[in-house]
Hints:
The structure is a homodimer. In chain A, the strands form 2 sheets. Chain A has an 8-stranded mixed beta sheet with strand order 3-2-1-4-5-6-7-8, sandwiched between helices. Chain A has a 4-stranded parallel beta sheet with strand order 10-9-11-12, with helices on both faces. The longest helix of chain A has 32 residues, at 198-229. Chain A has helices at residues 16-23, 36-43, 95-107, 124-137, 178-185, 198-229, 233-240, 262-272, 278-304, 331-342, 355-361, 383-395; strands spanning 7-10, 30-32, 64-66, 77-80, 113-116, 146-149, 168-172, 192-195, 313-316, 346-349, 375-378, 399-402. Chain A has 12 helices and 12 strands. Chain A folds into 2 domains: 7-196, NAD(P)-binding Rossmann-like Domain (Rossmann fold, 3-Layer(aba) Sandwich); 305-402, 3-Layer(aba) Sandwich (Rossmann fold). At the A-B interface, helix 6, helix 7, helix 8 and helix 9 of A face helix 6, helix 7, helix 8 and helix 9 of B.
Amino acid sequence: MKNRIFPAVIGLGYVGLPIYLNLQKKINTVGFDIDKEKILNLKKKIDTNNQFKKTDFFQHKISNFSSNYSQLKKCNFFIITVPTPIFKNKKPDLGPLINATKIVGKIIKDEDIVVYESTVYPGVTNSICVPLIEKISKLKNKINFNVVYSPERINPGDRKHSINKITKVIALENSKIKRKVKFVYKHLTSKLFFTNNIEDTETSKVFENIQRDVNISLMNELYIICEKLNLNYENIIKIAKTKWNFLNFNPGLVGGHCLPVDPYYLSYVAKKNKINTKLIIAGRETNDSMKDILYKKITTYLKKNKINYHAKILICGLTYKPEVADLRNSLAYNIFIKIKKKFKYSTGFDPLIHNTQAKKKMILNKINNFKKYKAIIFITKHKILYKIYKKLIINKKNIIINCML
Amino acid sequence: MKNRIFPAVIGLGYVGLPIYLNLQKKINTVGFDIDKEKILNLKKKIDTNNQFKKTDFFQHKISNFSSNYSQLKKCNFFIITVPTPIFKNKKPDLGPLINATKIVGKIIKDEDIVVYESTVYPGVTNSICVPLIEKISKLKNKINFNVVYSPERINPGDRKHSINKITKVIALENSKIKRKVKFVYKHLTSKLFFTNNIEDTETSKVFENIQRDVNISLMNELYIICEKLNLNYENIIKIAKTKWNFLNFNPGLVGGHCLPVDPYYLSYVAKKNKINTKLIIAGRETNDSMKDILYKKITTYLKKNKINYHAKILICGLTYKPEVADLRNSLAYNIFIKIKKKFKYSTGFDPLIHNTQAKKKMILNKINNFKKYKAIIFITKHKILYKIYKKLIINKKNIIINCML
């Protein structure tokens, strides 16, 4: 069997890249992405998200990166790890998922297996993806080919819960393919949890992220109350934590590709069925409003300190969360752009972002001299930035605004 | 010092009674309640809430229960453990707290200490209670007497987190009285956490309960979605729990004297300061709506099974949560009353409630023959009821509706 299974990972972002890098250590694997620039970088062992170092790019003899889909034709086990974002109107944008499905539909053969890892609302795999493959390929699910759903649980920036250490859920409706799927996925983690219901598994994944989003939103709501009532949020939480079951969540700017998106996926299908997801949406809106609250806090403070629009201002920490190098879907970056519109000589600074990203976005990733900035604002709490903050507040050479929640 | 401190516990409900019973084992204590019937029962070692057995009522030589406030005059350390409910319009009803404060105001002397344990919104102790004591007594806080805030963390029905095992927060603004307060409270638990800010501590307590209320409401919202979309809630949660940080909350009927109330306390003060507690209130409303959702589930099922309004129906489990004997603020009881209006021959049954309560409310607490009931509905999931449920579904003699979440 070992010789017969040839996997392809389709979509090489936060989810696909670690899967590819772990798989290709053990079995020949194709890493596919439609982004040609990304493929060029990966071939040079450069991960612009800074999650992987050059040494992580162990090269198996046949494994390779490609943006040419003819490379996928030799594969028989397709792992789809494309993003599932939302449109501006907050509705699910299944475009990347449908495009990846179409590619697979064109090349799928008898006995092939397709694994979806992307987060979706309940029903997408079986009612959208499967019929699309069947239509394009003229093959039948569960007869000619099989579809599996295995929700990704990648937490960018979290080394403690890397893919090898966590439990991976695998939903397959045809138990005959279990051995094949296990053969591939055991290379990722020894903790495999098999289940036979794809819809339940799709739902479990959105539930997980919604629970986190709602808990953070509660801390944001409580933080806002404390700020307005002049209560000491940090001391209050310190006291509350002495209770045996108080949960450790922090307020903050919720960005990225999961939490700000997944609640809308579930709400979309709920709304279609006339269910009002009042709490879930209230949480999402509270989290999203934090960018405006921090922006207002910053501008109020700048005004109070008579900083005019010609002053040099530095905004530090712009990625969507601490210890990641990604500016996409970042509320911190969003705040920076708004400040820049008001204060002409604002400069963005994030030591974690890659040189190519820094150049493209005209942001600094290195600074020697902080003195020239009248005001320095800290947003995303990278460890390295917190150290800089600690030094600068002692020096008292600049006006420092701490928005690191 | 031991001879000088003579505590009184004012309000002998879920909070006051365990404090009294623990204290009076070690030091002379007065147990005061305005409810004369309750005092008569307690003198006979009867706790109608069924939290304490007769053997728990160890009697110290001078300790005594009383509803006569002249008994408090000899005391110099007042622990106020009265309820803080809400009005029908959801606004805080500080009536019992103010009445208890007035009693203390009349008898307080130089060097006395007043400890508030009741849950309040931030500011109540210092801006309402203290001025009231000062006005009535003509004494000065921090000069003549001192006020302490120590939020209760009693979880009725939970023997694992009884008062002796948990951390007790004590907020005192005058460190000179710490020794006296410690002398009393060390008899309750060895884990005392001292802080000097009463407002922060008041806030921490409402935060704790709101976090729990919101998390349960999320599970309720997810449960409702599953019911309407025909998804298997239990299987979904089983899958989600394989993630390292998925939190173990269950959907359910949130009743009692804390969770359905405390969110409105914080929202009240927030609203007064023009802050919208959108998430907190959404959570509260979702939890409260569960009684209507379960009621509808029951009546739909009865209709489907052609149960007419003359049929004998038994509703089992009526207290506000499993393993407690209290019908007050119970959504299960609320559902029972609604069913009874529609189905004339409905009978309520809860094996945990006390005989006096059963008689008063015309509810059974013992049943020998289940056969005569056409339909049997289970709501509050007491362990003993779950056992009965298991037996009855095997027997198949009745129509069984399981609403035990």
